Structures are given as structure tokens and as C-alpha cells.
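Running co-folding for MRU.
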Amino acid sequence: MMKKRDFPIFNDVFTPIVYRDGGIDLLDQTRLPGRAVVLRITDVDKVAEAIKTMRVRGAPAIGITAAYGMVLGLERGEEMNRVAEALRATRPTAVNLTWAIERMLDTFRKHEGEPAGDLHAAMLAEARLIHSEDIEANQNIGSVGAALLPDSARVITICNTGALATGGYGTAYGVLRAAHEQGKMEMVYACETRPRLQGARLTAWELLQNGIPFRLVVDGAAGALMARGRIDAVFAGADRIAANGDSANKIGTYQLAILARHHGIPFYIVAPTSTIDPDTADGKGITIEERSEDEVLAPLGVRFAPDGARAWNPAFDVTPAELITGIITERGVQHPPYHLVGKE
Ligand code: MRU
């Protein structure tokens, strides 16, 4: 297991991404929990590859990585619009990616005519600001969300929304973490999250690091847990939240929302305002990434399905706003009907 002293740190917080001296140090999430490999990435194509292959994943984390990727592109003298396009094309659903790239392009345009050193300083400062704002937002989200939980809370979550998926601290996971810090968390049930097992590999790893009591469950166990009265609330992250509150998140989130409604359990979506896409009116406008069939036929490279089997592998689903009890952002909790505005 990775020792605490080996963790990448930004602003005193554990983070999966650090920019340093013309390169990005990136904790390779495809190798966790077995090995903590920190990659040194110095060109844009490698940044794009790392996002596409999910060495870095989670909506805020890929936005931050792309922002630093723009800095690397500038350092290599590349054309900024080409860099932006290459990074934008990596994963289609998480709006944080586009949002961060646009913010970096705006900064570039604002400082384009300045001496090279000033332009570089402005771009790096903007990327670091995106990063530090995300950590700050997550810490606020944590305290807003934890206040919604009863004492001895038992919650279920899906995918990984922790420090690994963000600039640091976590979104839905940040709520669980804050509740634990307040002594309120009795049990976290972490869905293993087929097919990439972000819950089993990454959330379980973070829960162990943070000393939070948990049980890993197969995704199909959520209904049985709720039926037995063992869940007080569901907390899930988001990759894109439409203006009406429809929320795209890891495949399986929609099922949790339906189960929660059936059992009368609150279902919360938790995300920074950078995940809100005010330009998308509702969930029908959200592009859902479809990934390789191999992720289902041969999870983590181990073939289970017979030769000739085919798979369908959407990475995300959309939970309709009417199933969402509240959307928690750094600005507070919003309840339906949602009329959401994004981060400026
Ligand atoms: O495919 P992934 O692992 O990038 O999917 C991640 C999720 O679905 C997260 O819930 C979402 O990005 C929010 S992360 C704070």
C-alpha cells in the first residue's frame, strides 16, 4: 500500500494531480489499489491518453488535468485551439472538462500579446486556481452535505467521488468524509461499480485511508439493503447536471434513485457548480459516453464472457430531476423544481 509520505499534495491536501517544473505528476488510477504509480507527463498527447484510458478519472479531476495539459501545450509552443480540441475529445460526458478548457482558452486570449513569461505565469496561475477552487468547493460541500445526515448514519454510494476523482477531498465522498469527521458516520456501503470497479478499487482504498467504516457491496445488493432498512440516504456524484436538474453519473446511479424513491429514502446528487451545464436544458441533451465492449466482456483484462458474446457499455446514465431529493453544491442544497445556474 502507498505510504502517506508518497501521496501527491497540493495546498496541503492529497490530490491525484500536481503540476511541477514543466510536467504533471499523475497518480495512475488504473494501478490502484495494488500499486501507487505516479506518472510524469510532459506532453499533451500523453495527457489526452491518460484521460481517455482513465489513468485519471472523475469529472473534476479530468477538468483540472486538462487545465494543466493546456499549460504543457503552451510550454511546447503548440497551437492552443488544437490542444483544446485534443483534450476536449477525450471523454464526452463530464462538463467539467469542457468548462476548464474554455476557462484556460479565455485566459490565453486575455494574455496572448504579453511576453512569454507573463503569458505562462497567467496560464499556470489559472490552472492552479481551477484546482484550488475545486478543493475549496469540495470542503464546503462536505459540511453542507454532512448537516443533512442523522447521527449514526448509514449511506450508500456509487463509483469513486473522493479525492482521487477531484482536485482533492471529494464530492459525494467528501460528504461522507465530513460526516465521519463529525462522528456521525456509522456505515458506508460502497457499490463495487461494474465494470471498472471504481468502488471496489478506489473508494474502498480511500475509505481505508480515512478510517471510515464500510462494506463493499455488489451493485445488485442496493435494493436488498434498502428493503432491510439499512440505508438512511444515497449520495452520488455527477458528471453533468442539466439546467432542470437531470443528472448524468456513473452507470447504475439511476437504478439507485429508483430504489431510493420506492423505499422512501432521500437521494442526493453532490457536485461543484462547475458540473452544472446551464446550456443543456435537460438530460436528453447529455451525450453519454459508450466505452469498449471489452470492459464488460473481460473486466480488468480477465475474460468471463464466452467467445462471440457482445456487450453494451454505457459509462453513465441520467437520473431524472424528479427522483433527486436535493442537489448539493458549494452554494448549498437545492430542491426541486431545479433552475440551476453554472459556475461563472
Ligand atoms: O468513468 P469515471 O470513473 O470518470 O466516472 C466518474 C463518476 O461517475 C463520478 O461519480 C463523477 O465523475 C463525479 S466525481 C467527483
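Result summary
The mean pLDDT is 96.
Residues 29 and 55 are 5 Å apart (CA to CA).
Job closed.
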